[in-house]
From TrEMBL:
It comes from the Bacteria. Pathway: Isoprenoid biosynthesis; isopentenyl diphosphate biosynthesis via DXP pathway; isopentenyl diphosphate from 1-deoxy-D-xylulose 5-phosphate: step 2/6. Belongs to the IspD/TarI cytidylyltransferase family. IspD subfamily. The keyword Lipid biosynthesis does not apply. The record marks 15, 22 as: Transition state stabilizer. Keywords: Isoprene biosynthesis, Nucleotidyltransferase, Transferase. This is 2-C-methyl-D-erythritol 4-phosphate cytidylyltransferase. InterPro entries: IspD (IPR001228), IspD/TarI (IPR034683), IspD/TarI_cytidylyltransf_bact (IPR050088), ISPD_synthase_CS (IPR018294), Nucleotide-diphossugar_trans (IPR029044). Catalyzes the formation of 4-diphosphocytidyl-2-C-methyl-D-erythritol from CTP and 2-C-methyl-D-erythritol 4-phosphate (MEP). Coiled coil: none annotated. It is an enzyme of class 2 (transferase). The record marks 163, 216 as: Positions MEP for the nucleophilic attack. The keyword Transferase applies.
C-alpha cells in the first residue's frame, strides 16, 4: 500500500512571537517546513508529501519546495490551508490521489522527527492498526484544573491522573486512509490531534514509541533547542 504524508503548515505561530508564519521561519538558515518535508521524505515508505500552505501563501511555499533539494523518489503537492488545523488537514486529504491507502499527518512544527519514528508509525499501520500515534512518557506530573477566568489567577486543582498511564503524543500520526477520511467527515467539534477523531468513531488507536527530537516548536525557547539539536547532528 503506498504511503502519503500530509503536512499542515498553515498556522500563524502566534506563540512563537511576531514574524512570518511559523512553518516558514528558519532553523539554521533553512525554513522549518523544509526540515519537516525532508524528515518525512527520508522514509523509504513515503512516496508523496502534501504540504498545506497558509491560505495566501501557496505560491510562496511551492517556490520554497522548488528551491530546496528534496529526494527525487518523493513527489510533492502544495494546497492552500484553512482556518483551523483540522480544516487544513481535511483540505490536504481532499487532494490525495486514490492509490494512497495509508496517510501520515505530520505537523510542520515538528521539523526534527527522526526517520525511525516515521517508519515505526508506518509499520504499525501496515500491521493492521487503523490509527497510530508516537508517544512519550511524561517527566512532569499533570493536573486537571478548573481554568481561571483571568490569566494569572489561581486555578483550583480538580484531579491528578496517574502519571505512569499518561503519554504526550507527537506526529506523524498514521492512519488507514478510509478511517481518517471518515473521521474528518464525522467529527465536527474542535480537536487538537487527528487520532482523537478516530477515537470518537469508537476505534482503537495505538501508541508506539515517540522520540525526544520530535518535539513541537511552539515557543521561542524551542527554536534554541531545535538549532542545538541540528548542530549536534552535524558533529
Ligand atoms: O497550532 P498548532 O501548534 O497546534 O499547529 C500544529 C500544526 O498545524 C502546525 O504545523 C500548523 O502550521 C498547522 N496549522 C494549519 N492550519 C491552521 C492552524 C495550524 O495547518 N489553521
Amino acid at each position: 500500500t503506498p504511503v502519503a504524508a500530509v503536512i499542515p503548515a498553515a498556522g500563524r505561530g502566534v506563540r512563537l512571537g511576531p514574524g512570518a508564519p511559523k512553518a516558514l521561519r528558519a532553523l539554521n538558515g533553512t525554513p522549518m517546513l523544509i526540515h519537516a518535508v525532508r524528515a518525512l521524505a527520508a522514509s523509504r515508505h513515503v512516496s508523496l508529501v502534501i504540504v498545506v500552505a497558509p491560505p495566501d501563501g501557496a505560491a510562496e511555499v511551492k517556490s520554497l519546495l522548488d528551491a530546496h533539494a528534496l529526494p527525487v523518489s518523493t513527489d510533492f503537492l502544495v494546497v492552500p490551508g484553512g482556518e483551523s488545523r483540522q480544516e487544513s488537514v481535511r483540505l490536504g486529504l481532499d487532494a490525495l490521489p486514490p492509490q494512497y491507502g495509508i496517510v501520515l499527518v505530520h505537523d510542520a512544527a515538528r521539523p526534527l522527527v527522526p526517520v525511525e519514528t516515521v517508519d515505526a508509525v508506518v509499520e504499525a499501520v501496515r500491521d493492521g492498526a487503523p490509527a497510530v500515534v508516537p508517544a512519550l512518557a511524561l517527566a512532569d506530573t499533570v493536573k486537571e484544573v478548573e481554568p481561571a477566568a483571568a490569566a494569572g489567577d489561581p486555578e483550583p486543582v480538580v484531579a491528578t491522573p496517574e502519571r505512569s498511564r499518561l503519554r504526550a503524543v507527537q506526529t506523524p500520526q498514521g492512519f488507514d486512509r478510509a478511517t481518517l477520511v471518515r473521521a474528518h467527515e464525522t467529527v465536527t467539534e474542535n480537536v487538537t490531534d487527528d487520532a482523537s477523531m478516530v477515537e470518537q468513531l469508537g476505534l482503537t488507536v495505538v501508541a508506539v514509541p515517540g522520540h525526544e527530537e520530535a518535539f513541537k516548536v511552539t515557543r521561542p525557547l524551542d527554536l534554541v533547542l531545535a538549532e542545538a539539536v541540528l548542530a549536534r547532528r552535524r558533529l
